[in-house]
Amino acid sequence: MCSWLGRSLSSCLRPFSRYARMNRDDDGSAGGEDDALLWTRDLEKHSHGEFSIAMVQANEVLEDQSQVETGRHATFVGVYDGHGGCEAAKYICDHLFNHLLKLAKETGAISEEIIRNALSETENGFLTLVRRAYQIRPEIAAVGSCCLVGVIWKGTLYTANLGDSRAVIGYLDRSKKIVAEQLTGDHNACMEEVRKELKMSHPEDSQILVLKQGVWRIKGIIQVSRSIGDAYLKRPEFALDPSFPRFHLPEPLRRPVLRADPAIYVRHLQPKDKFIIFASDGLWEHLANQEAVEIVHNNPRLGIARRLIVSALAKAAKTRKIPYKEIKKLDQGTRRRVHDDITVVVIFIDHEVMENKDFSPELSVRGFKDTVGSSSGFDF
């Protein structure tokens, strides 16, 4: 118990020079080249084309994690937007893909059920670790993470979502104009349908939703309605006492107020489908879906994830009436006043590559953990 907690804490607090998996790129064509808190891998290959990945930090402790795993027949994308700490997002990054790979190899296929089961095992595993650490560090019960997953297998795209990260596909319409289609729903109390769902499932609880400073929050605390972790809002045994005023519930929890079951969308990719943007909510706070796909469509692939982040930061700077060059000078923590941690993965779909059976890159890229890995074994 103590050893896991120590490893988890130390991984969150390491200096950023230790997170060498994605490198800052001196090519200024996409912007942000002198931003010390912006990292990128500008272009890599995956089993169905190419991808670009980037991340910018705002919080004092980096709470976003991400990964791309690709083998001969499949590509896996994960974006994990943590809150309350980094442990849940890091746990997902370390375990979810392995659960998925094990289950998929047992059946030789990818399916909605396998993705659900992999997420369920990840949730149960993290809650087990929370239970072990709870007596030493009870606040870990308030650590959670949104979880956005994409899997491309044999020409089919599966997306699974918990929280308010978002996947958006860019496709060409009949007039050859790029069109944005949102593949995932935002599980956020700001959405009317989410509020209706919460009220219907908790009719006895008049405080299931509380409007605080113009923002709807579940139990007056959290905006997302689905997550991995956040044990204190799922199980009474993880209740936090008044010494944690931010997370203390005045009445005992009768039943879970957050869910850990994902919404899953399946799409058979067509020639019109050109790319998918997977991103944490920090991007979508500043860029509309259509705006984001037009940026991707109208610019070179090299560094496109970085370009999206820079575009979002430029919007944030304009809103705050602070030049972006001044934002770059802010330290992590202070910078959170301007924008959130932002993670972006752009997956390009090259249909000629999908049809080429000899094209088989095997690569593992996990944001800010260590160097690029070898084959992920995603080859069933």
Automatic annotation (TrEMBL):
InterPro entries: PP2C, PP2C_BS, PPM-type-like_dom_sf, PPM-type_phosphatase-like_dom. PROSITE patterns: PPM_1 (PS01032), PPM_2 (PS51746). Keywords: Hydrolase, Magnesium, Manganese, Metal-binding, Protein phosphatase. GO terms for molecular function: metal ion binding; protein serine/threonine phosphatase activity. Residues 47-349 form the PPM-type phosphatase domain. The keyword Magnesium applies. It catalyses: O-phospho-L-seryl-[protein] + H2O = L-seryl-[protein] + phosphate; O-phospho-L-threonyl-[protein] + H2O = L-threonyl-[protein] + phosphate. It comes from Perilla frutescens var. hirtella. The keyword Metal-binding applies. Belongs to the PP2C family. SMART domains: PP2Cc. Its cofactor is Mg(2+); Mn(2+). Its EC number is 3.1.3.16. This is protein-serine/threonine phosphatase.
